[in-house]
Amino acid sequence: MSVTNLLEEQVAIQPDGVAVFYEDDAISYTELHSQSITLYESLYSNYNICPGDRVAYLGLNHPNMLILFFACARLGGIFTPFNGRLARDEYTFLLENASPKVCFFDEHFADMVGMIAFESFASVDDLKFEGMVEQERVQVPLPIVAPDDPLLLVYTSGTTGKPKGVVLSNRAVDTTIANSQDLYGFKPGQNAQVTLPLFHVGGLCILLLPARLHGASIYLHTKFDPQLTLGEIENAKITTSIFVPAQLDAMMSLPDWNQCNFYSMSHVTLGSSHIPIWQIQKFHERGVPVSQVYGATETGPTAIAQRIEDAYSTEGSVGKAAKHCDIEVRSPDRTPLPNYQWGEIWVKGHNILTSYWNEPEETAKVLVGGWYNTGDVGYKDEGENYWVVDRSKDIIISGGENIYPAEVEAAIIQHPNVAVVAVVGKCDPRWGETPVAAVELMNVATLTVEELNTFLEDKLARYKQPKELMIIDALPRNALGKIEKSVIRDMVS
Q1: Are residues 457 and 406 in the same domain?
Q2: I need a labelling partner for 432 at 20 to 30 A (CA). Which of 47, 316, 340, 467 fits?
């Protein structure tokens, strides 16, 4: 069933049931549905949004973001949420690349919007749903939205140095919802807590959409607050939450962690990067099973996940193939490997991306015969459980955010004092990894990490900026002249 069908089904089942708790507001399923229809009409009449048009959103977590998503789904528009942690030049690129007919922004980004040369901005303050309802209703043709039509355009950093737009179809989103529902069985009466940003498919698709479209209530927060999160788990009788390692580190370091009562939680979902085993064990010590989820933006993201009943017996595994996915571990020549042999993880299913936006060559690199190559290295055991052991790509995972060295290097090389640069990840107890830049400088030039990051202020989000700078006379290279990042990683470790 499509997301709009599932929403309408919940309206029929529990019209007055709370779909979303947000700060002091409680939004019912009927209100959510009504507002999405009203906004769907407004998008057509006020902004001429037609099937295939992009509708961008630049803002923090808010119910308006979800209402806009459902309106796009009904209209056939492509919902395009932007990462709220980027710099001006990064937003300029995204707007040029996606070419949305309109980009809605909230009050937190008013200053940023004022610095970007893009005409079709609209404040979310203009989305006055009550006023829209009172207006004369507009007769909007209801388009036929096919399962393979695009629904989401989500940007992820690319190895070419520029972000790539991942196109996910209606079928892909529906399949991810079905995968999560098979795993967790959401139903009315449950309370799911969401603190991850909704511009990520991890925040939007793993828990929020499946839980809400199957009757559970969502506790949604603008930003993550570790103290508030712990208090709400106990006070609101939260059934499940989803976290990344940096959030867990912040929560587990609080004095209230040991006093928090987790009796209402059926499980907690963890994902986005390698999860330290001690974090998993801390939940298990409190009687809360951990379900790890593995995937990428390109897989919707749920591709492999740990079933709740397997949590204690397979600590550290990312679980089994999701219900609607096929998984293979392959050798470099794409031959499937037997159990316990390391290889690249490939994913097949209706949840995977249709393409990279306007990037046919990049798409062809990762989609082969209907399979998506994750680039991650792992193996499968005799119990059909998968274990991720390394990343063949150079992705740096910092606080749950993907950082691609090529993107950071492309920005750093613009500094007039930098001749050559290589960026690698360094292990960090709080963030998992942080970026380190190793550079060769121009003759007689000098540079500090503070000076470099001042230069990068409008070019890269702060979390992508290097935390350390290594000045090296000559970066290590192999016989072909290629920089050996493995050597640099050893130097910074």
Answers
A1: yes
A2: 340
